[in-house]
Amino acid sequence: MTTQRTLSIIKPDAVKNDKIGAITMRFEAAGLRVIAAKMEKLTLKQAQDFYAVHKDRPFFNDLVAFICSGPVMIQVLEGPNAILLNRSLMGATDPKQAAAGTIRADFAESIDKNAVHGSDSIETAKQEIAFFFTEAQCFSRA
Ligand code: ATP
Ligand code: MG
């Protein structure tokens, strides 16, 4: 199995609902180690740049406004097949479609307020990690 890194964001809804610990426990229980972390309230510019891939989608403005609406917990996770493993722990984008026992099924209220973000490919993981952290801020234990 390949050791990978992925970017996780615990979104403002889950932070507000005091789910940082419950969500992070799921990562660690599945073998994903937190190797970098910071809590921040994103600026509009940061959010627009981070979600630039969605800039032409009808939900872009709402998405950006929501991610800036409160503090988020940004983490780099490292472990076997981290990118796909995190996506499977997260569950489907719309919590109504998310499999039972996934983070979104248990902690998200709607498709807009869906508790977590996770990188979706090797390429985006690399870009998204570099968006928030330098290599020196990542404490690999692989
Ligand atoms: P994320 O990128 O947050 O991990 P995702 O990869 O499951 O989620 P994307 O398709 O990348 O989903 O969409 C990014 C975010 O935009 C979603 O998390 C969701 O909050 C929002 N979004 C996606 N599709 C819709 C939609 N049809 N209506 C409203 N919001 C949406
Ligand atoms: Mg996505």
From TrEMBL:
Signal sequence range: none
PROSITE patterns associated with the record: NDPK, NDPK_LIKE
Domain of life from the UniProt record: Bacteria
Active site: residue positions: H117
Reaction it catalyzes: a 2'-deoxyribonucleoside 5'-diphosphate + ATP = a 2'-deoxyribonucleoside 5'-triphosphate + ADP; a ribonucleoside 5'-diphosphate + ATP = a ribonucleoside 5'-triphosphate + ADP
Enzyme Commission number(s): 2.7.4.6
Cofactor(s) annotated in UniProt: Mg(2+)
Pfam families documented for this protein: NDK (PF00334)
Domain Nucleoside diphosphate kinase-like span(s) in chain numbering: 3-140
Principal location class: cytoplasm
GO molecular function terms attached to this record: ATP binding; metal ion binding; nucleoside diphosphate kinase activity
A GO CC annotation given for this chain: cytoplasm
Residues holding ATP: K11, F59, R87, T93, R104, N114
Cell location: Cytoplasm
Transport recorded as keyword: no
GO biological process, one term: UTP biosynthetic process
Keywords of this entry: ATP-binding, Cytoplasm, Kinase, Magnesium, Metal-binding, Nucleotide metabolism, Nucleotide-binding, Phosphoprotein, Transferase
HAMAP family for this protein: NDP_kinase (MF_00451)
Family: Belongs to the NDK family.
Role of this protein: Major role in the synthesis of nucleoside triphosphates other than ATP. The ATP gamma phosphate is transferred to the NDP beta phosphate via a ping-pong mechanism, using a phosphorylated active-site intermediate.
NCBIfam families: PRK00668.1 (NF001908)
Binding partners and assembly: Homotetramer.
Protein name per UniProt: Nucleoside diphosphate kinase
Species the sequence originates in: Candidatus Rickettsiella viridis
